[in-house]
Amino acid sequence: MREGKQAVCFFLVAVAYTSSWQAVSSLLAYFKSLYGPQVLLDLNTAWLLPGIPILLLSQWDAYDSYGPALSAKLVTGMAASAALCAVFPLIASTEARLLALVTTLGLFSAVSFGSSYQLVARFPPSCTVALTTGYVGSGPLIIALEAYLRLGPSPSQKQVVQLFVAVALLALCGVAAAILLLRTQGKEQEAMLSGHSGFLLDRPHMQPAARRWSNAFSGGPDLPTTFRCSLDIPASGSPASEDCSQTSSVLERTSLLGGSDDCSQPAAVLSGRDLVAALWPAAMALFLSAGSSVLCFPFFSYLTSSVTLMSNAGLAG
After folding, report:
1. Which residues contact 191 (CB under 8 A, 6 or more apart)?
2. Domain ranges across the chain
3. pTM above 0.70, yes or no
4. pLDDT at 281
5. DSSP, residue by residue, 98-167
6. From CA 127, how far away is CA 119, in angstroms rounded?
7. 244-252 long-range CB contacts below 8 Å, 24 or more apart?
8. pLDDT at site 242
9. Which residue positions in the chain have pLDDT lower than 70?
10. Which ranges does the record mark as transmembrane (predicted)?
């Protein structure tokens, strides 16, 4: 699959697991009329809280892993979201059911979110851009869909059903895109096992993933000599220096170990302090931008809408 098609697939994946929340939050006026202005705060809590245990579980190797586990997480998360969106208007008949559905959607969305960013690390940088674009681009898509359906502040049951059926179809498109990406990744792993020495050289974006992937084999005999040396894993039954002599030219060109041609020297590892120093500007920027919006958003339902203000002005005149 070409890089452009891969980018489109990642865009669809991100749209798939974010469009459900965009659809729910866009019906704020509708839910406010049914359950009161506090419903938006309740919906935000129901959507965001499931992400916390998912982040904690991602520290476990049994959860945060590659291969079949990653495939199952990504596909199951989006497929479950599609199923829930398809039945959303039928089940969310009370506030308790609404919050339960949003909580479940938040759980599956968090699973898909983490899995998609694990997967995109093995693809070119343009795919990361596409994934992020899809994450923020689902909002305009839902707005366009609601404009097409002519949803107002008090939509009919038919309009709500049409909206969530369309969102379910978007999620299914994401499932199909994820399957294509996973098949592409499977073929690349087969190429790694085949022992082609130019594989990592032609795909520099795969080098970090290859190191992580190879750990599962613990330097076993099935791992090709080229990759065993370049990934700091001595070949079983042969000295590391002998392996290194066979692949020093590859290591020099790919610079997997900072340009060193000695595969017995491990790659440099950043200390915790250096890592914090490198990441804190980006982390602070994300916290200020995303955190401020998350804090303010639940209180929008307490503000007087522009429609009400204009109506009052007309009555006063």
Report:
1. 199
2. 3-190, 206-254, 272-312
3. no
4. 83
5. HHHHHHHHHHHHHHHHHHHHHHHTTS-HHHHHHHHHHHHHHHHHHHHHHHHHT--SS--HHHHHHHHHHH
6. 10
7. 247/197, 250/197, 250/200, 250/201, 250/226
8. 46
9. 1, 55, 58-67, 188-270, 290-317
10. 70-92, 98-117, 161-182, 275-300
